[in-house]
Write a structure and sequence with these properties.
By secondary structure, the protein is an alpha+beta fold. The chain has one helix and five strands. Strand 4 and strand 5 form a beta hairpin. The protein is globular, with a radius of gyration of 11 Å.
């Protein structure tokens, strides 16, 4: 499945913060965005949340932005 995600880095803890009006998931990430640390933590969090291997989570776009398109698992669903 493909998810639209808004990441809030440097949060007190990593957690799902809800869904925005446009359907984008809002996720607080404890890591800072330096050197891709927040992206790594986002992938690990989504893997745990959806119970898939971390290798099955891929950021498709938005590597340096707070809004990202992320694929979880092998299927792509719009």
């Amino acid at each position: 499945m493909t998810l639209r995600v808004k990441v809030v880095p440097r949060s007190p803890r990593t957690e799902m913060a809800g869904e925005m009006a446009d359907g984008t998931l809002k996720i607080h990430i404890a890591a800072s965005p330096d050197k891709g640390q927040a992206n790594d933590e986002l992938c690990a969090f989504l893997a745990r949340h959806y119970q898939v291997p971390k290798a099955s989570v891929e950021i498709l776009s938005g590597h340096t932005a707070t809004r990202k398109l992320v694929r979880v698992g092998n299927q792509t669903v719009s």
